[in-house]
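Quick entry between incubations.
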Amino acid sequence: MTEPLQWARYHWQRLTGGANRDDHERPYSYSSLLACRGKSSQTPKLAGKHRIVVPHLQPFKDEYEKFSGTYVNNRIRTTKYTLLNFVPRNLFEQFHRVANLYFLFLVVLNWVPLVEAFQKEITMLPLVVVLTIIAIKDGLEDYRKYKLDKQINNLVTKVYSRKEKKYVDRCWKDVTVGDFIRLSCNEVIPADMVLLFSTDPDGICHIETSGLDGESNLKQRQVVRGYTEQDSEVDPEKFSSRIECESPNNDLNRFRGFLEHSNKERVGLNKENLLLRGCTIRNTEAVMGIVVYAGHETKAMLNNSGPRYKRSNLERRANTDVLCCVLLLVIMCLTGALGHGIWLSRYENIPFFNIPEPDGHVISPVLGGFYMFWTMIILLQVLIPISLYVSIEIVKLGQIYFIQSDVDFYNEKMDSTVQCRALNITEDLGQIQYLFSDKTGTLTENKMVFRRCSVAGFDYCHEENAKRLESYQEAASEDEDSAYTPSGSLSNMAKPRAPSCRMVRNGPLGSISSDHLTGSCFALGSGEGASEVPHSRQAAFSSPIETDVVPDTRLLDKFSQITPQLFTPLDETIPDPPLETLYIIDFFIALAICNTVVVSAPNQPQQKIGLSSVHGMPIKSLEEIKSLFQRLSVRKSSSPSLASGKEPSSGVPNAFVSRLSLFSRMKPTSPVEEEISQTSKSPQGSGNSACPIETEKQDSNVDVTNGKVESLPGQPLASSLCYEAESPDEAALVYAARAYQCTLQSRTPEQVMVDFAALGPLTFQLLHILPFDSVRKRMSVVVRHPISSQVVVYTKGADSVIMELLSVASPDGPGLEKQQTMLREKTQQHLDAYTKRGLRTLCVAKRVMSDTEYAEWLRNHFLAETSIDNREELLLESAMRLENKLTLLGATGIEDRLQEGVPESIEALHKAGIKIWMLTGDKQETAVNIAYACKLLEPDDKLFILNTESKNACEMLMDTILKELQKKNPVSPEQASSEALHQPPAPPDSGLRAGLIINGKTLEFALQESLQRQFLELAARCHAVVCCQATPLQKSEVVKLVRSHLRVMTLAIGDGANDVSMIQVADVGIGISGQEGMQAVMASDFAISQFKHLSKLLLVHGHWCYTRLSNMILYFFYKNVEHP
Amino acid sequence: MKRKSQDCQSRLPDNSALKQQQLPAYRLQLSANKILSGFFATGVFCLGVGVVLLLSAKTIKEVEINYTEKCANCAKLRENAANFDKECNCSIPFFLPETMKGNVYMYYKLYGFYQNLYRYILSRSNSQLVGTDVKDVRNCAPFKTSHNGIPIAPCGAIANSMFNDTIILSYNLNSSIHIKVPMIRSGITWWTDKYVKFQNPSFQNLSSAFAGTTKPPNWPKPAYELDEEDPGNNGFINDDFIVWMRTAAFPTFKKLYRRLHRIEHFTEGLPAGSYSFNITYNFPVNRFQGEKAVVLSTLTWSGGSSLFLGLAYMVTGAVTWLAFFSMLAVHLRLKERKMFFLQQ
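Done. Structure below.
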């Protein structure tokens, strides 16, 4: 019952907030503002457009009053009414509805004595009743919101008080712009604030934004430049800068502004510096910031839009019917009035029954007819089924209630059920003809599971792991089955999900969390103990079942050959280590370190595991460090990029400055400074030692194999390490490496520590990271190998790319070269096999460089980085120089598992005559494999592949395919009759099942005006269509095209931000609340947690809703028009 | 905060029959056979009832005599409102060819009198008619008060336009002996009308009960003098008045006027022979181009002489059968085709 209100409020907010929005929709270039930095004359002009934040402190009192005083405080009020304005405002809103207005019109008409038909009081009754009921409902709803607001407003946070000169507890509602706030780990951020201090030595703060966008991985935020170096907490009293930033807007991914120190020096601010209201501080002991947006001006609140309002097809038809009724009514009344007039005028005398006016005179026939018209409108008002609208709304609310309380839509893992965000289109669910589906995360789980690998030409198929996964699935499906009985479901939830899993972890396996839900739960459930946090994160990211990998026995055998002696060639007694073993070691090291995974231990409040200086050399004297910096300052940007793995943004004029500031955290990495880097592991020793918890000694001999070890507090065990990766593939590979006791223990911008069972802890010095990008389709890390002290490049990337970069001539001689070629061929075979099974493949390769080579490359890379013109190309070129002459180590096959029940659902939908299109950004092979796996395509389907380079070719190809289809289809009935005489003729479209596969480039041609018709005709004849490598825009264009040209009901389903446009364009948009955040859900009309729920949603609920509603509408017309 | 987190613990919906829409429900499965037999049966029923009704209506004897033209001189007299106090009598002889057995009812019938006009229907005061407040004349405008402001009782256009002809039926045994046919003027109203909806104000003396009110402008006498013969039949509970006040739905209507008192010659009913109506012509119909008639009729179990109900049943039955046959034809054809395909 809450949604219509939210909808109303949403519209209200849009009405009232119109002025606001104009502000931030106005395009302006902030970079231009930054470009003319230093010219203070610019500032006053911009003051109106932007917001100036002055610290809420004594010395700035006047200025504070001037600027920040006018900004709203942090009190939020989501209620619509107050006690005083409830009645007038509620009435005002209710009379926005046409139905109520019509009622009102009739009541007023009835008050006119000339046309009065019924008693005035009686006609008022229904209107009054309806208005009262709705007003009571609104009032209750608002009261509930008021209580919730109060609860949130009275949450407590630590705010710096200028009187007491320390942080004091204060309610959220009393926080104002310019306040300094200090937050500890796991606390919820009360308002949008700029991060000024973090206990993290690197000035990084981790936040969890699951409440905001649903993404459950941690995000990093950066302390404002210039404050990072401060060893102690920023003293608010000494803070004398002012912040100028853009006006409040709802773009979560944008924040622009600068911080102006008292000496007019400016520091740019971006979204990396902003902590958003509603997020939770994680992994960081304490942070401090200054509030820039509060209350309703925070980005979280501005993003809080209500449900969507769509009008269903049925309702549109009912509307036209109602209009017909209105027409009929007018005609009837006109006829009546005319007839009355004519009839009256026929009498010469005044008959008895034509009674005169009260004052005695007799009205003329014309006037009599006119009065009769209005009287008849009142009398025949029932002809218009105005109650239909109220009834439809109530029935739809009921339908939504029933949909939402369907047990079958409940997903235990996420503790979520279906959400109906749009209230008006339940019956459209039953009318869907075309279904557009995303692949990743929608059909598949988007939980990457390591399935197979091929190392040094040998395929390790991990049968045990496969078995374990199967048994897990069975166990899961058993659970599903028993969940249908009410008694069983609850007990099952608490039970560990997979008894067959032999790996037991410390954390509860069920991973049912309440924490990563949305909405109010989130906002309030923040202060809950830290123990709950890791579970939720695991649940969101990957359940233990998926992360654990059972090692392949053959591969384990080979591991047993690994001994530390392998790397000590001085020992002459041992023969040269077998090459394969070296490959295996390198392969797993590459898996473990060639990524940007962040390591955290879930059980501790201080979760970040940094490498302490204990491992390094004693700290050099300050002198030395200084000189080191001076020498390094020449090569500003050769530092490894930040732990976030992102290069400083390019193209921005101030990138240079940002890089300068990075310098302070820079590591001496160039070969020239080799000796220094060897000796000074931690140039910023002061920062490290300032944080005692961080300098915890790593227990390097943790028994990794024994996952059952109780976790001792304060000691992160391998099994309890949490890996947070930007993409699930990376995490899957790191977990796979861990299964082979090659555990990624920690990662800092300077070094990576890997615990390799047989070799002990290895500390790799990170020299460089070339992050993944979609052009290169690979990423590389450059490290110094701790044992051999060589510079090694580990590269991981798409097979097609890596294969081209392999070294043609091996430096080690022709024998090895031959071996490499063999290896290459074998690996390629394995890769082909993997692809056929629908696995995502990655190749791993390495390259050993000499120091001089590396130095040479580094020099060129600097040039590329510092160049201003075509920097991108130069960087790409530079990467190409590094990533060549690679030695292939092996390949991995990662499975993106199909979601449970997907093939069955697709089959059911197919049977129901719904055409299913799969639109994905993945490459063709993967997409087709998944399409086969989920029964979108049947093995005996005829596939047509549209893959052309030019428009003409595309047209030709479509022509031929169409001809072929046309040739086959008329034949098909005859075929059917010849094949099966005793069967009734099949519907024409199932005569020949054809699948169409089209890739992004061809799709572009097909979507052009001239080919649209042909493409649609072709697509309409095909049973299933797969569009691969499609961009989000293309996805939405396809949906739009089909919807508008074929005039069909379309449904789009997706889970990620790339599906949002498609979801919005379709008649019915469905979001899957899963891994990729909440954007899709926010844009959707219905949100479900798994694809399999779609079949019941469409085929059962959609059908019910449609038949029931249409029957009701028909009955209403029957009742009102036939029997007024 | 604690409480909140508990609320969020599980969103598993209730697994109750209501919420899962699993309550027992019965849905009619319509098959061709069921529909066809249903239509057939309905048709049979309607036709049967229609035939019975028509037959029973045929047995009714009815005599209708339109006296608009026959009393043309009186009609002319009434056209001029100035002659309202001049009495005009008119005798209409007629011959009854066969005896009307059983109860015989006498009606007056008006043509073209729109008693169904909306504002006409409302022009009455129910609180006055039920006797609670004689002076309540709220909805009666313009027949609310007389020129000098005295409230009219009974007020309103309906009462004012009351049918005021008197009709006396006499039986001519021979040319010299005219027997006045005994008629009862009571028992011609609905019970609820007579005893619930219409009540005289509670006073000892009826005329004092109507004190302070005046008669409707068209009436010759006040309400408490409507029936000179029976003092209990005066005021608002006068039978003729009550019958008139129940407005008719169509412009042509007949209202019950008297019923035969079966005594002496008339115990069997009205014997065949020559009769005459002696009508005191008061009600002007020329003003609205109407006509008036007097009707003698018997009744059967199925009501009056109207064929309407019987015809309606017949038509419905016929249409249903038509539908049945057309559907049967379609069904058979489809079945044939299906068989054809199956054979293929």
